[in-house]
Amino acid sequence: MTELRERTVQVNGHPCRVWEKGEGDPIGYVPGYGGLPRWTPFLDALAEKRRVIAPSLPGFPGGIGHFDLDTHLEWVIATRDLLKDAGLDGADMVATGFGAALVADVAAIWPKSVRKLTLIGPFGLFEEDDPTFDVWALKAVNVPGIIVSNPDKFADLTRQPNDADPVDWAVQAVRANEAAARFLWPLGNTGLVKRLHRIAAPTLLVWGEEDKVIPPSYARRFEKGINGQTRTVTIGGAGHLAEIDQPDRVAKAILDFVH
Amino acid sequence: MKVCWFHLMPYKELPEDFREKNNSVWVDISTKNFDPERAHLMYNEFMDELEFAAAQGFDAICVNEHHSNGYGMMPSPNLIASTLARRTKDTALCVMGNSLALYNPPVRVAEEFAMLDCISGGRLIAGFPVGTPMDTCYAYGQNPSTLRARYYEAHDLVMKAWTEPDMFSFNGRYNQQRYVNAWPRPVQKPHPPVWIPGGGSVETFRWCAEMDYVYAYLSYFGYIAGEKTMMGFWDEMKKLGKDMNPYRAGFLQFVGVAETREEAMKLYKEPAEYFYGRCLHVDPKWAQPAGYVTEATIRASVNSQIAQAAANFDVAREMEGIVDKGYVIVGSPDEVAEQLRKVCTHLNVGHLMLLLQFGNMKTDLTKYNTELFAKKVLPQIRDLFDDQWEDRWWPTGLSRETAATPSPVRYRQEAAE
Question: Per the confidence metrics, is the pTM higher than 0.80?
């Protein structure tokens, strides 16, 4: 496996970080809650077989410019531009939670831009009688208990590196939540339900069995709406960020799917 | 000095075990706690109290806006202010205020405030709060990431609607209107005085200075906890080269006055403990949605003492602590007058905003507190600052001669009697 490489692409004139590791056909990853403050064991597991490309959405760790994006259309276009410039046009895509709401829209609006699509606990839909959890009404101390099943793994993901400025590190985490709120507040409903039928890519839906944020029942709604072939994999011992809780099992399910 | 009489309109019958049985007084408070027939009586008592305060000679009566809130029953302060406009004569009406980003289009605020200014004969003080996260982001579903930008844009639109002589088009980031033509227009020219309630951020200090607006610090924790913020405000004014005119500032303080301090402690214990115990039972998960405060404020607060003090803030819920910590000033008229003179001089505050009704205070006690204050405290504090500074932020209004006198209502049945 190669070393982690970093480059920058411009989205609406703002720099967004692109991390890359591994060799072979590219597979893209757009993270969920909190973004990608660190490279993760899950991405290492994918990078053993594929060239993993992880671009940062505006406002998420490594990217800025969310404050220029006012409408859902602007967010979706920014996501499409980011993926294209990161070298992911037509590639397999994996996206989680917040990020999955946008990547699902890219796959719906530009059906040829994604080869095979994996959505892990995606946002984008909301049902009044089966509501998602309000992740923006959460004291910091309660975040790990809601977002993952293994709080230690969330601590690993968010631990401040020795060379990072503590204020910058704190601001970066808040900014990621703000950026997500900017396109998902208040319910996480982006109107995606009307566009799901345009998704033609074969789609793998991955759900943490213990997802407290998006109830696993939402998998059926995605399956029903998406036109491409769909399959749902439920991961035991995992919460909303299933790939943080169970990196190897989620990576294996995805590698089997994109093979 | 100007002394303003403020009402929050708290629901007065939250049960004794409210804290134990309810998650929060705000946002998700159970409607099981609300009895509309009791609220009918409360609203009418509250409005009587505001009118009583006006008749007692307070300079202004104040109302404010909250949503889904058990201690603030005024989702629309403008409704209350309009009845006060008819039933009071010379008193300023301080609407503290309308959370600009919640009105769609914001021109609604320009219209309603202009109506109030016309009905009252130019007595309106226009308050423009951003609004708390509980009110704006949660109860009203506004996006915290765009709230402030929307607020500033709505402010620009309202001010333009008041001051632009002709109809215009507004092509904003969040508001687009081809025909902006506020009708009616405010009596006060160029516009009613603007007061901004703030929570202590330097950005708001600066904005008030730049726009020449009053900065009003509306904390429930009194003059001791408020000292740092007010000192920070005046430091910033100095830095910006502004004068130290105390009328640049407003400050909220709870007060309970009686013949003696002992008696005051007894009389105001129940309503004070009701307020700090039941009314301030707010779930902290709603305190700061991401984006509600700016990154600059987060950076400034990470290492600041104020933020640390806030994080460790332990609210007193029993009378001794409530008084010791300065949330409520209690005493005989002379003691209260002396203390308020000290506080207002020290904090350099020209607009003293008083809560003389708080918690479940009964209407008789509210009127007693108000009358005793008006008779024996007000005359001892009113002269403060007046020989040195001009209040440029007070309604200019119509003269008594030109102002309308609402006719008394006589029902047919009564007329026949």
Answer: yes
